[in-house]
Amino acid sequence: MPGAQFKYLRPEDIRRLSTFEFAPKAVVEGYFAGRHRSHTSGSSIEFRDYREYVPGDNPALIDWRVYGRTDRRYIRTYEQETNTECHIFLDSSASMGFGKKITKLDYASFFAAALCYLVVRNTDRVSLEIFDDKIRHFSQPGSTRKHLHNLLNVLERNEPGGTTSLAEALRRSFPLLRSKGTLIVLSDFFDDANEIFEALSLYLHRGFKVHLFHVLTKEERELEGQGLRTFVDMEHDDRVVVHSDSLASDYQREMAQHIAALRATAARKQIDYCIADTDTSFYELFDRFSK
Amino acid sequence: MNVVWTNLILWPLIALIAVPVLVHLFARSRPPKYWFSSVTFLRRVVRKTNRIRRPRDWVLLMLRTFMFATLISLFLLPLLLLSSDYTPFKPRRVVVIVDASASMNWVEGAQTRFAAACSEATKILKKLSARGKANVVWIDDSPEAEFPQLGSNVSYLIDALRRKEATTEKGDAAQALKLASRLLNNVEGKKEICIVSDFQKTQWSNVSMEVPDDISLALVKTAEKHAPNSAVGDLTCKPAAPLKDTEIRISARLFNFSHKPMKRTVSLKTKGVRRSREVMLPAGKDKTVIFREKIGRSGHIPVEISLDKDNFPLDDSRGCILKVKDKLSVAISNKNVWGNAEKWHRALEALEWAEPFRVDTAAIADITADMVMIDGWDGSSTTALSGLISSGTSVVVAPSKDAPVRSIQKLFDLSRDSELQTNVVSEGRKFGVRIAAAEHEVFNLFSDGQYGDPASGYFSSRVPLTLPDAGKIKTLFSYEDDVTALASYRGESGTVCFWNLPLKENYSDWAKRPVFVPFLGEFILAMRPKPTARTQSHIEPGDKVVRQLSSGTSKADAELKRESGQQIAFTVEPQQNSLKALSTALPQPGLYRWYEKGQVVQPHYANLNVLESDLQTMPPENFDNTSALYADTADNVNKLSSGIKLWPWLLGLTLLTALIESMYVNIVKQR
Hints:
With 291 residues, chain A is α/β, with parallel strands linked by helices. In chain A, 33% of the residues lie in helices and 26% in strands. Chain A has helices at 11-17, 64-70, 104-121, 145-157, 166-173, 193-206, 218-222, 244-268, and strands spanning 33-41, 47-52, 74-82, 85-91, 125-131, 135-142, 182-187, 209-216, 228-233, 239-243, 272-277. Residues 26-34 and 38-45 of chain A have low confidence and may be disordered. Chain B has 671 residues and is of the alpha+beta class. Helix content of chain B is 24%, strand content 30%. Chain B has 13 helices and 35 strands. Strand 9 of chain A pairs parallel with strand 2 of chain B.
């Protein structure tokens, strides 16, 4: 992308992403020929199986050699290579604006931009949904460079605000996605875990491969070194006066329990769950797609 | 007990105690804001931990407030006073009463009770400020103060404490306390009396501790509760004035004041005799040991009973002086009305231990003899006879027929109203006598009949009087018609006998009978003066002894010495024909001897007062002055009287609280 400068997709990122490939292990359904296997049998060079001919099948597909040997009509089926769709859900609630070196939203935006780039580079389709307690933006899947530019611009204009309601956003987005693919959720998951997974069940039932990236800062995980403070909730303006040192251990325990609960539920539902620590490079998150 | 703050200028600092509370209240209310992604978890954690955290916070708040309070109090220099009056600007006026009585000689550990008492008294005096005045009163037989009034020369008093030695006298604690109160009378300042003593129970149990209201009283005890002492408590010799080679009964009461039985060796030492025996003394009780000895020498013979030495040797021996006589001197009147005088004299001359001599009845007041026998007493010189009796001389009177009844009543201490039955005189008739008191010691010799019947013989004349056989009058012989023949009256001071047995040949054949001489001998021996050695020689350390020096003896010729050779000073006063020597106080128990021209003329034996031997001490609750401060050391008394400085304690408390607070915080953090 010569001449274009995007906040979340810098030239050095593009250079580095040249060695990456977005290859989720998911069977996709698509209309365009691509590099991902589809359950839809089609014209391809890769043999899949024999199936007895039924009226309505294309007679050209009958394997006449088999007919000559067995006097029965069979047709050969092939794996159809198709393109995949990647749907990125980016939580942009006020809480995502938290972070000292880098806000969680910036971190998530960098990762989302890189994902978009990799998907489009593979001529796959990518969609982006920005939500808080409502859907603030939704881009239909697309695989063109122009589509990518639009997405990057949307990310740059995005600001944290509103309250987190991931479950609601997932429920509302479901009708918008016409074909299954890979669903990537970038959020801090400050929502009710049961409701989140209930909402995700719709997608799972439809065959989506779901990846949850729990974006957290070190301060959120450890709550240390703050001393006596009035902690103000960035989403609800809720206040609580505590001495972080005296509560740190209890808080860490509570947070660990929350993460463990999310991870356990995700594992039970065969959802990939990963902590995205803002102190680590977002490139490391791409490893999740190879598992 | 109250607390005063001596650094009142910093009193406003007390408001700083509120700092931790204010910090707790305000610092928590407006801490800086911190925008956080979500406080959901924080709130959940706070809700869970509040139940634990709140008490922790309160504990921390209390610890910190307490630490502040102690820190601030420290700068206010508090003083803990046990007495209600706090008069820091009044100079102290202290009288230290130091017990120097005999019981203070008991050795506890490495020093005597007295040494410990002097040490404590010195501490009290050293704490006096330059404006303070003091005096020291010694408790002994006659308590005295070092200064006539309170003085500021404390170093002299300290030196006096260093020089003084415990006496062996009993202590007059009540007198010492009165003297101390008197010394503080009309004195301006903070008046204090401090008694340093072992508070021996026998000495202090009856002492009133009441002092005037403006005087504070402090008691310092320098004795352990238990002192396992044993002592020779009492010594009795009977007879006290024995005749040479006659048996003497020497009995001693040995005391064990400890809680355990003791096996001790008791020894008798007298002229040429030394005997020992082992005795087991029961715990807390006494036991009497008896020795029977004969002394083959006449004169003043010291007798001493001793125990083997213990920590309190003063009472381990006790002695007395026996006046052993060669012969019993019997003065017999010249008058021979009933023929008695002649018969008495002749019979007594036959007895080797008797020394009869005739005297003029008119000069009876000046007679010096063990016994005086008056024949045909006409009732005169009653006062002189009473004087003899009270001086210890036994008197035998054979009244004449015309002796006034009133004189007899007076001599025998009978009231005027008492009836002296007068019988009809029947001259010419022969009367027999009978023994009226067979159990009397006079008749002991005749109990087996070997020496005949003392009631044999007849009497044809007599005084027809019957004395009442009751009370102190004992009838020995009585006539057939109950007329008293022989009676004795043993009064508190001496013995007087009523002899109504005429011995002239015209009146009786009794004097011719063989039984007469032994009976008269037994009668004389029984009726002779019998003072006990105990009453005869009741001298204690601290007493002064008196001696009438022999004529021609000057002060230079006389000496009073202890058995160890230590000379005792004495003064002399001129009397009519000689000098009267008065010693200084005898310093120790033991034997003292008067010498005249190098010869021993009179011994004395000083014995420790038996009350001093029981070294048990009084518990403090038994003192009647409940407001008195009771302490075991003088340091405590100084603290009690001048107050206890609390700042070192507060400093320690502050540091301790800080340590506890930091430990508590660490523990809370770790959890």
